[in-house]
Structures are given as C-alpha cells and as structure tokens.
Amino acid sequence: MKIDVLSLFPSMFHGIFGESILKKASEKQAVTYNVVNFREYADNKHGQVDDYPYGGGAGMVLKPQPIFDAVESLKSENETKPRVVLMCPQGERYTQAKAEELAKEEHLIFICGHYEGYDERIRSHVVTDEISIGDYVLTGGELGAMVVIDSVVRLLPGVLGNEDSPILDSFSSGLLEHPHYTRPAEFRGMKVPAELISGNHRLIEEWREKESLRRTFERRPDLLEKRALSDKQRQWIEEWEKSR
Asked: Its Gene Ontology molecular function terms (predicted)?
C-alpha cells in the first residue's frame, strides 16, 4: 500500500511512522509513506495556501489550488486511482468497518487542513471520502489522519505477528473484545477465571464469547440493537438484565 499525506506540518508524522507497528510495516514493505507539505504547491511567491472566506466570517479557508495541484501530482506519479480522504469533523464517523474497507486499497491520500475550513470545491471535486474520528474539533487534521492510518496499516497482511489478531479485535466481530489475562494465575488474591486455565478449548471459547457479549452489553449496548443473536446469547442477556 502507498500512503500519501498532505500537511502543512509534515514533521508531526516523523515519530509515528518511525516507531512500533507502523515502522515494522514499512520495513516489511507492506506500506510506503510519503508526507508532502502542500505549501510547496502554492502558486504565489509567499507560499500562501489560505484566504479570507467569501461573505465574511471568522478564520481563514484553505484555497483549492494547492490541494488540486498536489493531489494531481501524486496521482500522476503513481498512475493509480487512490482514495482521497479528507479529515474533517463533518465527515463520516470512523469505524472499524471503514478501516477494513480502506485496508483493501492500494493507494490512499490524506488531506489534513489547519484552518477554519476547506474551499468546497476540494470536497466536491477531489475528495472521495470525508472522515471524522469523533464529535469534537482538533486544531488540524493531522492527529485524525494518524489514527486512521494506524488502524488501517495494522490490518495489512503480514504486518501483525499473529494473523488472527485483527480479526479478534474489538468491533471486528461487531462486539467488544473479551477480557485478557496472563501469568500469574493469582495476583494479590485476584484469580484468573477457571475456564481459561482449564485446558478445555470449548469452555474457553464459550467463556470468551459470553464475556465479549457481556462487555458489549454493559459498555456499548447500541452495538447490539441490530445484531442477530443466538438463543444462547439472548438467554445470557436476559440473565444480566434481571440482575441489574
């Protein structure tokens, strides 16, 4: 996968691309990163990429020309049809399903703004996807892009040591992930559930299924509203509801 990022602050990405899983993914040649300061594409000697909004109002608006030229240049260099992702609070709420969708692409371009807003012609003629990571406002799109990139890259084949890890993550199955335990089996009087140390794989899988459902029921019941449940799962929920 090729990931291009358009940002006025490219140095913000040096740390995240050079550490942990994102670094390993690059070393394994599963992904290549390219961060571009789109100020370099400004068509004026001052490198200005923003201007006052028509009709008045607070703040500055990102001009279309630098973004159009930067995206067109990246497309011509790679001869691909990339997904062009605009990070903005008005976008689609980001989910694991969206991460899995983007992970199937060969080329992603992220646009990170840093002003009051974008000229609408960027949205309507350049962008394929608008993404929001939550109902709050950040000073720029860089942090949001980092979140999306991290969640996408870890899904690429061969990036994680255990191929089952992304499949079993919270939200991948539609439920929150079950609790985890490691050694020692007892710590300060707190014991690991007996099922997990029983050696009985059927009991272990049933415990994980039940605890995954319980955690979702307690913390994110909205995820269960449209989910098809088995008779056993419905029975568990009925028991939890009675014990409230």
From this structure: tRNA (guanine(37)-N1)-methyltransferase activity
